[in-house]
Structure formats: structure tokens, C-alpha cells
Amino acid sequence: MATSNDKIKEAENSSLSAGVDEYDAPEVVGVDVDDPEGIIPIELITKGLDVIVKRWENYPDKPPRKDRLKVAWESAGTVTWVFDELIYPIPPEQLIIKIDPSFLAEDGVAYLRYVVSLEDLNPVCSAKRKLTINSAPFDLLAPEFPSANLYGYLNCDADPPLWDGVRVKVPPDPGFELRDVLIVNWEGFKSPNGSGQPIANTYKQIRKTILTLEELDKGVEVLIEPFVPHIEPMIDKASALARYSLERNGRIVRRSKTGLVHIDRIISGELIPCGPA
Predict the structure, then answer these.
(1) Is the per-residue pLDDT at 65 higher than 60?
(2) pLDDT at 198 over 60
(3) Which residues pair with 240 in a beta bridge?
(4) Quick check: helix, strand or coil at residue 16?
């Protein structure tokens, strides 16, 4: 005779395979939620991850109600349940689930999701969070911002104007080869030094293949656009961070240091920041 646990397990596996997603994907502290690749910062690879599971709808709010929370780590076709506990009333608004660094020992792609088995044994799954594990060295020069002034600021006098985009330059490197792919990432911050949480929806990724000897010799430039949503939220004493990776034969082999640019669209004596007409 099948037990309650057997029924839960069968239903969970069925839901995972059927792709039934009703909850948002879990988040990972230190991984940009707007990054579709979910690149894990190298400093977290040796420390492990803190996974945020937000309190789900219809959570247990009074005894004897108990829900069962399970968190799945999927890599190379194998699913490992890294967390499996009964949740008593009332769960906190965010549960932090620890992922051991041993799960990050090999480069590759993994997926996180969770399953909540409600009191009626009916499991509800979250969407997947893609994570990219890459231990490639950070030995490339930081990207440059050709339109910034001598003090590293992009302001209302920038050329081209900020509302026409921000130029980001990848400097040349003797290790670059034709057909290499440069992956440039950009995100904005309300702070002047790139600290704190990134501004939602400012994240931008551009892939640029090195096609000419001139690009090998002089470097590669990309344009961050459009103004909304990638630049417009940075108004007063704000900033952006840019970094890039070198992809060769489909694999990230080197990564850059981070470039910081200050952004300020305030005009002295004006109430409205500069922007498109």
C-alpha cells in the first residue's frame, strides 16, 4: 500500500516532469535576478549559495497545518533534493536555504526550483532559476567608457548624449582571436560606486563576435541602449558597472575585472534631469 510520502513523491516527480509552474523562481543572494544566465560570482563558488524562497500563497497560518518544502538542484540531468522539511505555522516572509560549495565544484549549468506540498498532498512547483558556474580567471582589463569625462562621469554633456546610449569599450588583449565572442554585461545602481542592489530592469547583455583584425588591434566597442530601461533610472549620484567575458568554442575561458562609471543627469538650478526632448 502506498504511503502518504510515496504519494507526495510521485506527485512531485510528476509535476516536475510536466513543468507545472505556479510560483516564481527562487532567488540567489549575489546573483542578478535579471541575468538570464544566472552567472554565479566567483567568490560564491567557494562559499556556497544562499537561496531565497519567498513565502508562498496559502501558507500554513495555524496548527495543525503543515506544508512540506523541498528544494531541487538539477545538474547534468540529475535532480538532488537539497532541502526537505515540514514548514510549521507561520513561515517567515523569506526562507534562506543553504547550498553547499560541493555542488559548485564543476563548471556548467544548474537549475534551482522548489516544490511545496500542501496539506492536501497537492504539490505546487516554482519556475526554474538558471545558474551558470564558471571558474574562468578574471585576468582581462576592465571595460572602458569612452564618453566619460576625466573624472569618470557621464553627465548631461556626454557625447553621444546619454539618451542615445552609453559606449562601452573592450580594450584589446593579445590573447584574443578572430571569431572569439565577447559577452558584455551592464547594470545600473542608485549609489555612486556600484554598491547596493542593482536597479531592476537596467541589466543588459550584448554578445559581440570579433570579426576583423582592426577589432583585434584596437578593441571592440558596444552601445548600451535603449535609454529606457537601461540608463534612464540613473539620475542623481548614480552609477553603472560593466564587465565582459571571453567565449571561445562555446565556453567562457576568461573574464574581466569590473568597470565603474558614475552617472549624473542633474542640471544645476533645474528641477528636471536632462533627457530626451
Answers:
(1) yes
(2) yes
(3) 188, 261
(4) helix
